[in-house]
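Let's practice the habit of predicting before peeking. Look at the sequence and jot down your guess about where helices and strands might fall. Then scroll down.
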Amino acid sequence: MSKVSQDKRVVVVGAGWAGLGATVTLAKQGYQVTLLEAGSYPGGLVAGWKTSAGRSVEAGIHGFWYPYRNIFSLMNELGISPFTSWTRSSQYSPAGLEVESPIFQDLPQLPTPLGTFLYTQFKRLPLVDRLSALPLLYAIIDFDNSDQAWRRYDFITARELFKDFGVSARLYHESFEPMLLVGLFAPGEQCSAAAAIGMLYYFILAHQPDFDVVWCRGTVGEQIFRPWVERIEKSGAKVLANRRVSDLIVDDNNQVTGVVCNDEVFDADAVVFAVGITGMKKILSSSPSLQKRDEFRNLSNLGAIDVLATRLWFDRKISIKRPSNACFGFDRTTGWTFFDLNALHDEYRNEPGTVVEADFYHANQFLSLEDDEIIPIVHRYLANCVPQFRQAKVIDSSVIRLPQAVSHFAPGSYRYMLPAKTSFKNVFMSGDWIVNRHGSWSQEKAYVTGLEAANLVISYFGEGAPANILPVQADEPHIQLARTVNKSVRQIGKSILPEFWLP
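Done guessing? Here is the structure:
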């Protein structure tokens, strides 16, 4: 690749993990990059802010899991240490404590998924129910994140998948569905089986330590995004907030030459979209240029999930066994998590009382309630898990409603998701809902796709050095062997059976 000429202008739309990743990659190569953010500060849904009383809040707590190799590498590059040590977690139902997870990397390493199976401490779930998950291993081996695998599994629901493979009803309701509610943010009958397998494999089953997690020691906006944005601006990029994109200017050669934000136009030689599904649909609704393209019109078939983020300050110290906790069974179609911020956030370490974040996913039934209706519900749920909360009083609180906030991987949605390359020669896509073959999920995937989009810009111009993207850790040898055998059997089967026998 040659040195970048100074007149190449790139507009990046959206300042979350993907947009910031694309911007810093291109700015370091010498491109003139303008980053447009619709909100008041870069960071998208993870940009924290202060309440009127000066307390830090954010749109939910986000974990950073052991496989987030590229994000951890970014922290080293930025020279910051924003994370806690590895933490243990618990899972609760209305009946009480259900599961405790160890620090898996500290235990003797066993072939996957044996270590996860043996070391996870189930309090009530019988062994016979846990063993009913064994046939599901075939689906995990068969699903290799390829386009063909996604098409095989995406049209069925996660609930159907687990039922078809003989998972017991109790294991499904007490283990797998809670994972879906806090991992894919929807109940199993509303989740793609392909997405369910991919998410479970990446976060839990690929390698024994994958479920280990650290947390930001404050809001992600303050601890990570502020120093990152400062670094980006020093590299020469322009970061502009309160710029909502409304259309593109397209020439006769099928190239975008400008990005429109109401009455402003930003000239562009290439464009990177780095927004979520809801943000992209808003842009589409006002953009005749995008509405002319089937691929963008079809985004109307994609959806997103409502999230409710609450933060409660209590008048006394309460002993919470683990700093991070997932909960199920309190509402039929809603999962929730709660976090001990005295243990996780530096700001609250010496707080005289207890500060708890409680986040609800697929929370559509809560969003219409008033704050003074929501807080007692959260307080009651917390007291069900940790009885000490019953005597505590809420002295301050924050409620943040996030309608259509996180990607919904519904059955059949894969065919409408966009690849990184679009029908425009110089427009590229990034985000956690973009089709790619890296294998990561959530924040790590968003960041990786931002780097991938930047690399496509570099390839398009033929100028600059591409970003180095760390691959996910290779499958363990026995999984690799099983997948090779399975692929061979499939190929043989397709050669002797009609195509409809092997979808």
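How did you do? Residues 442-461 form the longest helix (20 residues).
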